[in-house]
Amino acid sequence: ATPTALLVGSGRAAQLGVVIKGPEVLESTRTIDTVVLDKTGTVTEGRMSLDVERDLVVLGADSQARALALAGAVEASSEHPVAQAITTAARDRLGTLPAVRGFSNHEGRGVSGTVMLDGTEHRVAVGRPAWLVEQGVGVSQEASASVAAFQASGATAVVLSVDGEAAAVLAVRDTVRASSGQAVARLRALGVRPVLLTGDNARTAAYVAEQVGIATDDVMAEVLPADKRDVVARLQEQGHVVAMVGDGVNDAAALAQAGQQGLGMAMGSGTDVAIEAADITLVRADLGAVVDAITVSRDTLRVIK
Ligand code: ADP
Ligand code: MG
Questions:
Q1: Which is the CATH superfamily of the domain at 52-172?
Q2: What is a single molecular function from GO for this protein (predicted)?
Q3: 190 phi and psi angles, rounded to 5 deg
Q4: Could you read off the pLDDT of 40-79 as tens digits, one per residue?
Q5: Which residues of the chain are under the pLDDT cut of 50?
Q6: CA triple 85-71-172, angle to 5 deg
Q7: Ligand 1 mean position to 262 CA, how many Å?
Q8: pTM of the full predicted structure?
Q9: Strands (E), the chain
Q10: b/e per residue, 248-270, with b = 16+ CB within 10 A?
């Protein structure tokens, strides 16, 4: 391809809201056969919310208000979308939240810390149910049943543990971007296979996949942040040219890996870390831009050959 043609192609892409790091990126875009889509913040809007009346189930002796205060207190130190949903709901209900000591963020799993409430200190953790079970927290049949029911309805369910006991199940909900389904259909029409990749649980992932038309076999769920990169590497080893689309800090390594043979694409609404790791930034918060990038690149390079 001549430099001029590539420049023209980059210009066309830019008009469509696809910002390319260098014109040579168009070469890799042309041969993409697999697009790995992060779920939260990429296929979905990534703005989660918690409806306390419907989606907070208290398990132990704590009241709804106490459960919310304890969960909100530890989540206030995290920037994860799940944390923001819980903190916002807790502040709306309760105003200020108790202070937290010894906060830890457990990447892809949850958060923990010590919270002082009504004069007593409590060890509190909020996170994915399997992580709390691993820590020896007893999760009853009743709790597991409400987790499963929430997940089947597309929500992300987390468990609150207080002093080693499961105290509540909280389910947060996100919205699939209106444009995601059509973008997936357009990818298929170009002969590109869409794959959904997420740290979230398999049931929630399956619900989102179904909404946008991604096959069950192409859903990879419960993948820890450190393993997202390996998923991309494995597809590459199988001979695929992969574009990875993501927005989060936890997508950066996978975006960089995809860029070695194919492409990393970051949502413009995403984190700086993701944008730096990617070859392309999608200015519109719309997966249609992924399809536009591939189409422009194929057109540009077809013309010049
Ligand atoms: P994704 O791939 O969807 O961006 P992550 O890898 O960041 O997801 O997180 C995976 C799962 O870990 C979340 O769905 C949630 O269950 C749990 N988790 C992560 N961070 C938190 C948090 N701050 N509070 C509660 N749960 C969390
Ligand atoms: Mg994300």
A1: Calcium-transporting ATPase, cytoplasmic domain N (3.40.1110.10)
A2: ATP binding
A3: -85, 0
A4: 999 999 999 999 999 999 998 889 999 999 999 999 999 8
A5: 305
A6: 30
A7: 27
A8: 0.89
A9: 18-20, 34-38, 56-58, 100-106, 110-117, 120-127, 156-162, 165-172, 193-197, 219-220, 242-246, 263-267, 280-282
A10: bbbbbbbbbbbbebbbbbbbbbb
Q: What is the pLDDT of residue 303?
A: 57
pLDDT of residue 298: 87
With b for 16 or more beta-carbon neighbours within 10 A and e for fewer, the 179-212 pattern comes to ebbbbbebbeeeebbbbbbbbbbebbbbbbbeeb
Residue type, 87: T
Residue located nearest, by CA, to atom 20 of ligand 1:
110
Indicate which residue's Cα is closest to atom 9 of ligand 1: 108
Contact indicator for 42, 55 with CB cutoff of 8 Å: no
Please tell me the number of the ligand nearest to residue 108's CA. 1
CB 199 less than 6 A from any atom of ligand 1: yes
For the record, the structure tokens of 4 come out as: 């001029």
Q: Is the ipTM of this complex over 0.85?
A: yes
At 29 the pLDDT is 86
- For the chain, counts of helices (H) and of strands (E): 13, 13
Radius of gyration of the chain (CA): 21
Minimal-distance CA residue to ligand 1 atom 7: 108
Q: What phi-psi label fits residue 193: left (phi over 0), alpha (psi between -120 and 50 degrees) or beta?
A: beta
| Fold of the domain spanning 3-46+176-304 | Rossmann fold (3.40.50)
Let me know if 299 is a catalytic residue.
no
- Ordered by start, the domain boundaries in the chain are 3-46+176-304, 52-172
Residue 95's pLDDT is 95
Instruction: Give Cβ neighbours of residue 264 (< 8 Å, ≥ 6 apart).
Output: 243, 244, 246, 254, 255, 256, 257, 258, 277, 278, 279, 280
CA of 118 to the centre of ligand 1 (A): 29
Identify the pLDDT of residue 1.
Answer: 67
